[in-house]
Structures are given as structure tokens and as C-alpha cells.
Amino acid sequence: MDDGCGMFHVQMIVHPDRAAKDSTVPEHNETDEELLRNEVQHILTKATESDSTAAKVLKSLVDSVKEGFADSAYRDRDAAVAAEKKAAQDMKDAKEAAGLYSRLDGLSDAEMKRLLQLTENGKNSPVFSGELMKDLDFHGRDGQEGLLLLAQNLEGGGRDGQMSDTERRLRDALSANLATATRPDSPLGPSGGVPSEWAEKLIRTAREGNDLPQQAPGSLSGGATGLGILTKLMGSGDAVYDRSLLSAAGDEIRDYETHTKDPYPGIGDNWKGTQEDPMGGLMKAMSRNPQAAESYFDPHQNDNLDYFLKERDWPGSDVEGEMPDDLVKTSARSSFGDALEAAATGRLPGTPLHKEIPALHSAVQADIFEQTVNYYGEQSKGQQDALPAALRHSMGDMVGDYASDVHQILGKDLNGSSEFNHLDIDRESLTRVMRGAAEDPKAFQTMHQSQSAVIAEGLQHFGKDSFEHPDPELRAWVKQSSSVLGYMDGVRGDVIYDMGQAQKDTNAWNKMMNYHVIGAPITGIPLVGDTMQRLVDVGTAEYMNDLNAHVDKETRENMADHFSNGRRQMDAMLEQRAVDTGVSRADLDRSPGEYEDNLQALEESWYNHGIKGADQAMGERY
């Protein structure tokens, strides 16, 4: 019974059975009363403890974000309590890691390993990462300054100027910690898509630096140096940053370089600028978040795409085309290409193209691709180097991801936009852009592979009757596909011809194109079904036979008479599909016959049409 003042007492009552005649139920004694009291007391104590832990967990959920509850879900109270204990441990670990970081230059090997263990284990924990960012202290500077100084130290090779594997992993973990600390479910994360005060101060500090003398241990330079420190950290490893921080950093760099008379002194006119450009690390980080990249380059929301394509004075751009391939691939504009690819395709650069045929993209993604192709297509009129070398690989991947639309643009005389992603691109602009991308043989490989897959997928829709009797749809598909392969060969021939007498370059290009043998998978182009794989196998193997190693002036001027690889590919794929449907090889040669006199005739005429169309688009005349 409740006493009404937080106390209770136990009162003995008569058991109903004892009122019965001849009852044998034993009487209660004082011990029974004590046992009952102790049991009730134990239950109430447990209930109080349970309520207390529940309150503690709820408070933690509320305190972990600025408004409302964190996006956390627990299956029961025990799981919530376990999470609370982990959060307490994460906070303790973060303080230990911050303490080790403050002594980074003097850590023993064992301490370095402990620091690496702590930061890697906590890289996905908002509690650990947020607390680490707040507790950092390096060279006497805390918070955002400490983080940037620490990042600069790790980027420069740490203790001895030579970056060890441990130090590289530490830098990557620090990048992941920053990404986690600034995501929406973190105390330092954005509110309503706007970066937190902490994140805004980080960006501002990177731009402004601090006022310490340059020789001081805690001196932090601003401008291109400070912004570069931040973005190199963001680009390290494989951390995925929230859109809010990526966009805010991009806006800050753009504002800096457009309002500074000489934003990149000492690096603007040489290859070093292509490596030190602060946009490089940011674009690398942007490419790991396709949704953020799509938003950042959305032409309906901002003019960032125009700025990067048309207006930006890229550091080192004048010498970009003369740099070795390894420097081109690590340049800032190459990272921009990766971010652009992510924005236009919705997938991570370097991952397989969309397996769906046709691949459908969002309206924003399609607009980004369309405007990019149209810009470089217009710029390349009368010249072959308008597409920067650093963008070739990304452009090849983008063209490959829009393969069905590209097939329509090159294979049909469209009177409007393409059917699938509603692209408004003329075939001359597209051809010139493909020509620029094809300077990289791997980019040409991707474009050719993707078209082979589209052609194979289309052929699968036709049965035996279509090969034996007139079928307008099959005839149209053969015509369009042959034209596409003609355009591809026109582009390839032009690249080889422009290499001139540099036989070494020509042979290297052709060697890179030897990408396929029967039975080998096509890299980056997912194929569905054995029939489709067989068609592509046969076609690409035939395409690789007797590739022209050299194109002289005579063959260039009469390319339609000398190039036939694409036509042989189309013939091999068409024949394979006919045989797969049950048409005998003898029937294929019967004349008059649909296959012999119509389908093969269409192959030849429209393949030549494609070659000539490509040459005219690239400025050649017959």
C-alpha cells in the first residue's frame, strides 16, 4: 500500500481460503511479510532504473541534433542502452585521439598505431567524429585552425616529410571523421541544408588563415593555400561528404578566385597549377556523391556548370595538353570530369555503366550532359583539341551511359530531341566531342562497347521471319546501327591520321583498343543474357580483325574505301542473330533474298554514309 510520500508498507490480509470450513492453508508469518516487501521493493527499484535509462537515452537522442530527434532506431530498450554505452565510449575515445593528435610529431610507433585504430574505428560515428573535431588541438591552435594545421601536416608527410602508410591512413581517416561530423545526423551537421556555424567557420578559416607570423608553428596561410588544405583533406580516401559542405566550399573557392586579382600566384601558368588547384580535391570529393554533384551543376538552379565549362581560368590550363598522362589524370580538371560524370549519370565514376538499355536519367542529369556536349561541340568547330585532355575519359563514360540516345542521334535524322532522355544535340556536335574523347583509346573503347551492346539488344527483338521476309523495323535497325558504326570508324580513323607519322603513338592507340576476344567480358558494360553476350562477342571480335595501324593521306581522303571494320562487325552480329533464330547459313546467301539483297546492302550503304558524315562533321571534305 502506497503511503503517499514515496514510501509503502505491507499489510497482511486474511486469505479467502482460510475462511472456509476445515481450511488447512498455513498462516502468514513475519518472514512472509518481509519476503513480499523485499520482492516489491526489488521490482520498484528495477522500474526506477529502467525509467532512468530510458530518460537518459531519450535525452541523448534529443541532444545529438539541434532540433527534434536524431534519426536513430532501436529495436528495444536494451539496444538503446547499448548504444548509449557505445556513445559514451566513443566520446572517451575521441578525447584520447585528440590528445594523441596534439602530440603527433612526437608519437611513438605504438601510439601512432593506437591513434590510427581509434580514428578508423570511429570514422562512422557522429559522436566520435563530432567530439574529435571539437577537441582537436595542434601546434597550439584548436578547433578549425587545429584541424587545418593537422591536415597540412599529414599532407606534407607528417613527422619526417615522407608519408608512411600509417600517416596516409590517418589522413584518410581524418577526412572520414570530418565527413561524418558534418553530415545531417551529427551535432556539427547542417540544419535545413545550410552548413552549421562550425562548418561555415571551417571554410572561412581556410580562406582567411590566421594572423600568426609565417615562421610560427601554428601559422596558417589563407587564400589558395588554406582552401587547398581543406579540399585536399576532403578529397582524401573514400569519404562521402554531405551536399551542404561540398556546395559551400565550392561557392567559397569560386568567390575567392573571382574576387582576387591574382588568386593562384606562382602556379597559374604551369603544370603545378593543375595539381595544386583547390578545386581538385573538392571535385574529387564531389564525384563520390552523385546527388550532390547533380545539384551543384544543375543549370536550372545555378550557373556553376557554365562557370566551370566557359568562364573559369583553370590554373595550368595552357600546358595541360603537353603534360604526361599521369599528371593529366591527377589534375584538377580530371577530377572535375569525374564530378561532371557523376552529375550527368547518377553513378560513381569508374563503376560499370547502367545495365538498362535504354538507360534513363533524371531531367537534370540529361541537361548537364546535353549542355556539356553542345558547348564542346561548338568549341571544336575547325579544331580537334577543344575538349581538354583531362576530360576525355569522363566524356567517353558519359557518352557510353547515354548510348541509346547516341545511337538515335548518329543513326537517325532526328527532327526533335532523342526519345529516351530527350537530348537536343545535333550529330555534328556529338561527333566532334566523341572525336575529342577518342584521343584516349580507353574512352573510344567505352563508346564503341556501349554501341555494340545497344545494337545487340536491338537485334534480340527480331525472329526468324524478319530475316527471311521484309521487315521494315529490322531494316531500319540495320540502317541506323550501320550508320553508327560508320561514325565510330570515321572518328577512329581521324584520330589515327592526326597522329601523323608518330607510328609509336598510332601503335600504342591500336594496342589499347585490343580490348576484346571471344569469351572475355566487356569491361564496364553490363550485358544481360547469353544471347546478347554472344552477339557482342562475335561482333567486337570481328571488329578487331585487321584494324588499320596507319592511315595515310590517301586512305584518309577515301576512308570509305579503306575502312570496313564496323561493317564487318555489323555483318557478324546480324549473321549470328539470324542463325540463332533458326535461319540456315545457306539461306543467308540465297538471292534474291531478304538477307543477301536487302539487309546486307543496307549495311554497306549506311556504314559508308556514317563514315562520310563523321568526316564532314570533323571538317573533312570529299
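Next protein, fold it too.
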Amino acid sequence: MRASECSDRSAPGNLPLELNAFVGRAAELAQLAETLRRARLVTVTGMGGVGKSRLAARAAVRIGPRDGSWRVELASVRDPDLVAHTLVEALGLADQTSRPPRRLLLDHLAERQLLLVVDGFEHLVDACAALVGELLRHAPGLRVLAVGRRPLEVEGELLFPLAPLPEREAAELFTDRAAARVPGFALDDGNRAHILELCRRLDGIPLAVELAAGRLSALSPGQLLSRLEDRFRLLTGGGRDALPRHQTLRTAIGWSHELCTSEERLLWSRLSVFAGPFDLEAAEYVCSGGGLHADDVLDVLDELLAQSLLSREETAAGLYYRMLDTVRAYGADWLVAAGDAGRLRRRHRDWYMGLATWCELDWFSPRQGEVAARIETELPNLRCALEYCLTEPGETYLGQYLAGSLWFYWVGCGRLAEGRHWLERGVELDSDRDRSRLKALWVLGYVAILQGDTVPALTALQECREEAERTGNPTAIAYAEHRTGCLALVGDDMARAETLLRSALDRYHELGELNSNVLMAQVELAMALAFRGDLPGAVKLCEDVRRVCEDHGERWALAYAQYVLAYEAQAAGDPERARDLLEQCLDTGHAFHDLLGTVLAIELLALVTEAEGDPAEAALLQGAAARLWPSVGLPLFGSAYYNAPHERCEAGARRRLGDARYEECVRAGARLGREAAVGRARRGGGGAPPGGGGGGARRAGFPRTRASPPSRPPRRAGRRRADTQVVPRPL
């Protein structure tokens, strides 16, 4: 059986597209698919490189459950506490609450018919087995296809041992991969015997066969066979008959290692320090020196690509390279044996410290979208750097700095739960650098506020303020005061929010601080003014934010300013302008996976829609928002002020539709996923449920009270970051 791509790409899920031919395995594929239909947990076991992952992906496509097949890759995860986080990420469950990820998974899977492909769990078997068992017990529609070198040993598990390819299919695989390296290559009478013998010697292990095919640009099949025989004797120290099957792949990789030049071996071992995809600049910085010049890294890396020891992949952040886990493990052994592992891990840490530093600066620039894509791609390596810093003696302050510097990713790109994980680990440890810990504290407070967890937020911010005053750190004082004002805002204490936010903005002004956080302080102050009835003051602040964002190419803070401006437009009886602003806000929030910005925009769009005369669609949007709020935090922060537009919309829609019809529309909205909800909101009511509508447009205003004077906006200074430590820019 041969095919170049999976058959059904319209089904939901995240299974990767196949980039080359799927060769053989017709009987195994049919049997595995049938086993999956009979059992809820099937584990494909076998030695490394035997093709478990590829077969599992094929079978998952063939099963096609109603709610899709979803693959989670655990090979790059080292912390057992992150297994549940990684499953949440793979399922696309952007969640910004304080709910444990296990609870989120259980809630999401409870009523779904879904196949979860869990790959590369061997090093996390206890944590993975416990989580999979719990999910299966509480989610009757869930099936799990596990892929690893050992069983999970969970009740109800069926094992599917995968043997190597038979000789004929292995030869077909060799020929297919060789033809990709050497145009026109084919299996013929002149090379057939050599190829069949080569595949037999490699025991039909697909990865070993592909590694051998990767050498055909330099060697003929006959030469390959001769050199393979020599390397087998060299690496095993005995006859081939005595070789245990589980050592065969290591022998094949070892043979490939022996065929490499000294520079290729050196780079291979050093690249093993990367936990996930890496780009050329990272490889040049981390792996150069000590016998390998930075200018030579590209040429040597290209040779490793040609030998199938590396793969390349196009990502949203550009061209990246990846090393197979088995190949990486072999290189890591050599790195340890050379006594160079500690130095390489420090260089790896330094690179990703520099990356985070410069991405934090670039977040306040026209490159904001590129920064989000870059950090998303680099997340496995950033996790590795964080783990190193938080476990190595004397490195704690760097871990605190790194976790704090990634605030824009945790907050702006829907990663609050994982951000809180690293921030809490960091602040629990002692360090001799106050500035790093102070930054981690205010970022932790910010994350907890957005999750609706007010007590931990206040604790972190109070500690930050007290320590900053003790050590004389005015920047940390400003950020702690700002975030305490934000806490007062969502807690409906508008007078205190206004006082604290004005004071924080004055402090920012004195420091010459200007970045996305400072702009958010203006937006939050504008929201407090709007809630108190000073809509002109709120507009003035947000128009200033809009001008600064246009100057700097900032989109994320601009979206929140647009939300406040839309609030004012709706209050002024201009739903058309409000809709335009909210749709722009929604586009940005959705693009950055910012669930809070997304759901706030949908909530206000519901009121706009009701004012435009479509109460059925408004009710549907309220239902869609209600489904999103549990993944964000307390609905509308539990705030009477934030809830007022929602109540006004509901009252108007119920009056026009009647209670039964209103509830019907809300239930219809609650069935929409995030993508569908955003699409529905963007369409502006073009697809209301049958029978909806009724009533003309209504001006839905907001209560006006005594105006307050607008705040002085901060001085427009050059970009700078709070509590920035000196970290060399990666070269």
C-alpha cells in the first residue's frame, strides 16, 4: 500500500500531513483500525524506529471519530507535571483560568467522541498512565491510541506489537527514499541482490533503512552493504547472530555515526541539546567553537540533512530543523562521553535567554505576530531552558528572569496556566538577584488576576511592592501598583482602580517607561473612567493609545483600546461604529489566541447585535460566550460593571423573543466551538437560527455619572522593559 497523504483532511484534529510515501503495512493498518474499534485503549509497542508513529497516524485517520483525532507528542516534555498541560495544548484548549489542566481535560472530553494519539510517553509512563486512566474512566466517548516502547499498563489496555517490515516492503521503502536522494534510482537486476541483503541485515527497521538510503548520494548499494558489514562487526564485537533485536537500531545509527566526518559527529552530538525544532542561527550560536567554526555549521548541518539525521520543516516562524528522538539520544550519549554536556546546556540556556529578551522587546513593534509565532515554535526549547535554570544550583535568578520575560506570551497568547506553573516554581525558590524575583512576582500577580484568582494575585503583588520598596526598585513598584489597580478594576472598586492606575502611569512617565504594559494601564484606566460615566475621558485615553500603537505597530494593546472605544460607541447609539471596532478587536484576539480579548468582544457584539434588531443572533452570541468563559475565568470577572451590557442584552432579547425562544438560541450558541463562535460573531448575525429576529434597532446606552478628569498619558519614550537584566544578544 502506498499513498502520499492522509485521506481525509476535512475531519477535525491535528494529525500531521504526510510528506512522503507510506510504504507497506496494509495488513497491520487494517488490524490496528479494527482493534481500535473494539477497545478504548490500544498501545502500539515496538523498538525505536520501527514505524509506530506513522502507522498510528494512519490508523487514526481511518477511524475518524465525530470530534476528530488529536495527536499529542510527549518526547520533548521532561516534567511529569506538564503532561496534562501538553494534552491541553494539543487539543487547542486555550484556557486562562486557575482550573487544573486535568479538570479542563475532563470537562472538555466528557461528552465528546474523540481519539487521542499519545506518542513518545516512555520517559513519563507513570504520569501518562495515571492521566490516561483517569480520562478514560470519566469520558465514555474517548479512545486512546498510545505509541511507545513499552505498555502503559492501564486497565483495559490492548497491546499491538509492531514488527519490522518484511524484506520486500523494506526494499520498497529503501527504493522510494533512495529515489528522493538520487533522481532516477530504481530497484533493478543490477542492485536488487544488494538492496535485499542490506534490508535483511538491517532487520527491516524503517528508520535504519531510511538512514542507509540517505547514504546513496555518496555510496552505491554494494558499497553500503560492505561498509555495513564492517561496522556491525566493529560495534557489536561479535557475530550478527548474537545481536539482540533491540540493539539493531543503535547499531544502524552507530554505523551512520561512523560514516560521518569528525565535524559531522561533533555537530550531531551538540545538536542533541535542543529539545525541539531549532533554526540555523540557534545551531550556529550553541554548537560552534571547540573544533567547529560558526561559519562551517551550515555546511555540516546540510550534510546531516542529506543523511536523514535531521529533517527540515516549514513553520509559521520560518524554516526550522528537527532531529529524531532516537538520533538525538545517540548524540546525547556522545556529548556526555565527551564531557561537554554541561557547557552545551549553558550555551543553549544563554541563547534562549537572549531570544526571550529580544522577543519581549519586539512584542512592542510591528513584529508582534512574528514574535508570537516564534515563541510558539520555540516553546520546547524554552521549557528546557526554564527547567535547567530552576534545577541547577546558582541559576534560579535566571529562571525567574526568563519566566517573567515571557509575560507577553503567557498573557497575550493564551498560555496563562503554563506561565503560572513556571512563575510559581520560580518565586518559590530563593535567589540572590532581587530584580528577577520582583519581576516574576508582578507577572505572577497579573496572570492570577486574569485567571480570576484574586487572593494569590494580591499576595504576589503585595510581596512585590514591599520588597521593591525595601530594595529601592521604582520600576517594580510601578508594575506592582499598576497590577493592583487592575485587580481593583475587575473587583468593581472603581475609585481605588482609578487612583492606583493614575499613580502607576505617573510612575511610568517619570521612568520613561513605554511598552504594551504601559498602554494597557491607560486602557484599564479608560475602562474605569467609562464605568464611572466619564466616556469623553475614556475616549481621550484610548485615542492616545491608538496613536502610540500606530506609531509602534502594536496590535495587542490596541485591541483592548478598541474594545473601550466600542463600549463608548454603543453607549452613544452608534452600533455600526461599535461593530467595526469590535470586529477589529476580535480579529486580533483570535489571531493571538487571547481568549479574554476574544470573549469580551463577543459579549459586547451580542449587545450591538441586539441593538441592530436581531435578538436571536444576540442570544446565540451570548450562548457562545458562555461556553468560552469557563476557559478564561470567572464570567465577566464577576463584575457588575462588566456584566451590565450582558444583562441589558439579555433583557432586550428575552422581551422580543420570549423566554423559551431566547433559551433555545442560547443553547444553539453554546454548541459552537471557538472558531465557529468567532466566525459567527464576525458575520454580524448573517446566520441566526430559524425563526429569530423581531423588533427594530434599539439604542442600548450605559449609565452616565459625574465625569472624572482624564489621566495624563505617559511620555512617549523609547522602548524599554521593566527589570531587564543584561543578557547578551545572540550572535
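About the second fold: Residues 1-9, 231-247, 685-731 have pLDDT under 50 and may be disordered.
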